[in-house]
Design goal:
By secondary structure, the chain is of the alpha/beta class. It is globular. The relative contact order is 0.09.
């Protein structure tokens, strides 16, 4: 197979050229025969037909696209070209490239190419709220300066006003889609839908999923992008596959679960040995590149640091143990839900701030050993630091305490907070300052606002102040620093004080955390 760039034709050497002549439309064929050589016009239609016949023809984007990019992109990487190529050749497809492989730019290049060929008129990008401006709008400006975009966020009136204006790209958050889904569906010119961080739709029983499923129409090209398609179990693949290629999985989730999982008890299922391979085969067509295979990044070191407890923390834990023993003696049945509440309170005690459920406030518990260990780790970092804190209440207490410690020691470093209380525009400002301001040393972050789209390669250390429950969020937040542009060796530090915390780290890393495992943790920690 030879590409002739000047004539934009494709020369095929085939055993049966007459087969191609019958299948490829007359207007796409160049009448040039030389033995078994056949020259055909090289465009997207021909490439798709050839691939349907089993001939692995490339996409024209590989040879006839100018790949616009900012000066900092010295070159387009091979895996980015291959990703864009795959996107142009399929009506619906998964992009399963790992986090940090620059798949955003690949999707934009593919969309731009299809727009230039009039195969796409306008594009809708559906992504997490935290990535609307900071990732997608910024990337469109940097990569496709000749294209326009708008963010559909705010009140319904504001979203509709922006939708009425002509843009090449419309960007909306996952949960914002339901606000104007009917108006978007009426826009027949929006015929490409890019769903970023599509793992948010892996539960087919949610209202969020129903909105997207009802919105997508046969005329839509659909690109589902996620680096973590099955973060918990192979069953995660079912709902996503129903959006891209529903014929690849059973109609009902229960059937798919029985095919991929073994039921161990009433609420516990375990993956069958071949189940992840089944999930991979189901999530097709797809393009997948691992970061380790296509990027040369510095190594990542994982460290566990043991911290002590204050007498106040020990006292509260002992009180909880006495209460649990009394409940058991009185015949109180401990359910998974009750156990989860108890374990959650125990985690708060270990962090240093306990939530008062009635008042929605946090009461500080002395936690000097953990705080001092955190400060010690921050001082060891060669560059900047991200600290992942699972509870909002302790973040502000940590901010106050760290700033007081730095002021006492005349340290010039500064820190900031990123959590759900911080509006998206302010978050974007903080992240830009984190990149540019050498004095901003530390960010205290809630994992839910750090899990998607953020690049923080200015940091070489990430500290988990305490474990979080989600394997997907754990992987996502760690990849904020482990991505293109990182030049330093990276360190991931996990802090823990009791076996409960180390068990949570282990369970999440093994993707096994569920109701029964939390119940077992409760029994081991409070009833031992």
């Amino acid at each position: 197979m030879i590409v002739h760039p000047e004539s934009q034709s494709l020369l095929l050497r085939l055993q049966q050229p007459e087969l191609v002549e019958k299948v490829i439309p007359k207007w796409t064929r160049r009448v040039e025969y030389e033995g078994h050589n056949l020259a055909v016009k090289f465009d997207l239609d021909v490439a798709r037909v050839l691939r349907n016949m089993g001939i692995k023809a490339p996409s024209p984007i590989r040879y006839f696209y100018h790949w616009p990019r900012p000066a900092k992109f010295t070159k387009v990487l091979d895996h980015q070209v291959a990703t864009s190529e795959a996107l142009t050749l399929h009506q619906r497809i998964f992009v399963l490239n790992e986090m940090g492989t620059a798949k955003t730019a690949s999707a934009l290049w593919a969309a731009d190419y299809l727009m230039s060929k009039r195969a796409v008129a306008r594009t809708l990008i559906v992504s997490p709220l935290s990535t609307l401006e900071l990732v997608w709008a910024d990337e469109i400006f940097n990569v496709l300066m000749h294209r326009s975009c708008t963010v559909l966020h705010g009140s319904r009136k504001k979203r509709l006003a922006r939708l009425e204006q002509d843009f090449d790209f419309y960007i909306i958050n996952h949960d914002g889609l339901k606000v104007i889904d009917k108006e978007l569906k009426a826009r027949k010119d929006i015929n490409l839908v890019i769903v970023d961080e599509a793992a948010a739709y892996r539960n087919g029983s949610t209202a969020r999923y129903a909105v997207l499923e009802n919105f997508l129409q046969p005329w839509h090209k659909v690109w589902l992008m996620t680096g973590t398609p099955c973060p918990n179990a192979p069953t995660d693949a079912w709902a996503l596959t129903r959006l891209v290629n529903p014929g690849n999985v059973p109609k009902y989730f229960s059937h798919w679960r029985r095919q991929t999982m073994i039921q161990i008890s009433q609420h516990k299922w375990a993956p069958r040995p071949e189940s992840y391979e089944m999930a991979f085969r189901a999530m097709q067509p797809a393009v997948r590149f691992r970061k380790a295979d296509c990027l040369d990044l510095p190594p990542v070191t994982f460290e566990n640091r043991q911290c002590g407890l204050t007498k106040e923390q020990t006292g509260l834990i002992n009180e909880m143990k006495k209460e649990a023993a009394a409940e058991l003696a009185n015949g109180v049945q401990i359910t998974a839900a009750n156990a989860a509440d108890k374990v959650n309170k125990l985690r708060q005690i270990l962090c240093g701030a306990v939530k008062d459920g009635a008042a929605e406030t946090y009461h500080t518990v002395p936690h000097a050993p953990r705080l001092n260990l955190l400060l010690e780790c921050v001082e060891q970092a060669a560059a900047k630091v991200l600290v992942v804190v699972p509870f909002k209440g302790i973040i502000y207490e940590l901010q106050r305490e760290i700033e007081a410690e730095w002021a006492l020691d005349s340290v010039a470093w500064q820190l900031d907070v990123v959590n759900g209380d911080v509006p998206p525009s302010r978050r974007a400002e903080i992240f830009r300052r984190f990149k540019a301001d050498p004095d901003l040393k530390l960010l205290l972050c809630h994992p839910k606002v750090m899990a998607h789209g953020i690049t923080a390669t200015e940091a070489d250390m990430m500290i988990f102040y305490a474990p979080i429950y989600s394997n997907e969020e754990s992987q996502q937040v760690m990849d904020r620093i482990n991505r293109p542009g990182q030049t330093r060796k990276m360190t991931i530090i996990r802090l823990g004080a009791t076996q409960l915390e180390w068990n949570i780290y282990a369970q999440v890393e093994g993707k096994r955390l569920g109701q029964e495992s939390i119940l077992e943790m409760y029994r081991r920690e409070l009833l031992a």
